[in-house]
Amino acid sequence: MKTKKQPNILLTGTPGVGKTTLGKELAQRTGLTYVNIGDLAQEGQLFDGYDEEYQCPILDEDRVVDELDEKMSEGGVIVDYHGCDLFPERWFDIVFVLRTDNTQLYTRLEARGYTGKKLQDNVQCEIFQTIYEEAMEAYSKEIVHQLPSNTPEDMEHNLEQIVQWTEQWMKDHN
C-alpha cells in the first residue's frame, strides 16, 4: 500500500446513532471524503437480493469492498456504515463506534419509520454493544474508540476530538 497523506476513518454504530450527521460535518471540517456505504450501494446497485423480514436490500459486501479499495489505499476517506467486519483491517487508521442511550435510539428509529422486529432488533443491538464487539474483533483494539452520541453537545465534542486526532495524524505522517 502506498503512503497515505490523510487517514481513513470508520464511523460505525447501530442505525440512528448519528453516524451520517457526524460524518458529513467531519468531512466539511477536515476536507476528507465522506462515503456513506448505503448511498454507495444504492448508486452502484451493489446489492445481492432483498431481505423481506427487514424490508431492505441485502448488501453485496464483496462488490462494496472492490468498489472502494483503490480510494481507500489513497487515504483521506471517512466511511459511514452500521457494520464493520466486512471491511479489510488495513483500510482504517481509527474506528469510532457511536453509542446512544436506548430510549433515545428507540425514539430516533421510530421517527425514521422503523417498527416491529426491525425496531426491536436495532435497539437490542445497541443494548448488547453488538457493533462495538464486532469492531473490537475486526480491528486492533488500540484503534477502536467508543463515543457517546446522545446530545448536540456530544456531537460537537466528538467533532472536535476527531478533527484534533486527524490533524495530529497528518502532522505525524507527513
Automatic annotation (TrEMBL):
Checking SUPFAM superfamilies in the record gives:
P-loop containing nucleoside triphosphate hydrolases
Stated EC number for the protein is 2.7.4.3
Recite the UniProt keywords alphabetically: ATP-binding, Cytoplasm, Kinase, Nucleotide-binding, Nucleus, Ribosome biogenesis, rRNA processing, Transferase
Where can this protein be found? Cytoplasm; Nucleus, Nucleoplasm; Nucleus, Cajal body
Q: Does the keyword Kinase apply?
A: yes
Matching entries from Pfam families are given as:
AAA_18
Q: Which Gene3D superfamilies match?
A: P-loop containing nucleotide triphosphate hydrolases
In terms of superkingdom, the source organism counts as Eukaryota
**Assembly and interactions?**
Monomer and homodimer. Interacts with small ribosomal subunit protein uS11. Not a structural component of 43S pre-ribosomes, but transiently interacts with them by binding to uS11. Interacts with COIL (via C-terminus).
Q: Which PANTHER family match?
A: ADENYLATE KINASE ISOENZYME 6 (PTHR12595:SF0), POS9-ACTIVATING FACTOR FAP7-RELATED (PTHR12595)
Q: What is this protein called?
A: Adenylate kinase isoenzyme 6
* Organism lineage: Eukaryota, Metazoa, Chordata, Craniata, Vertebrata
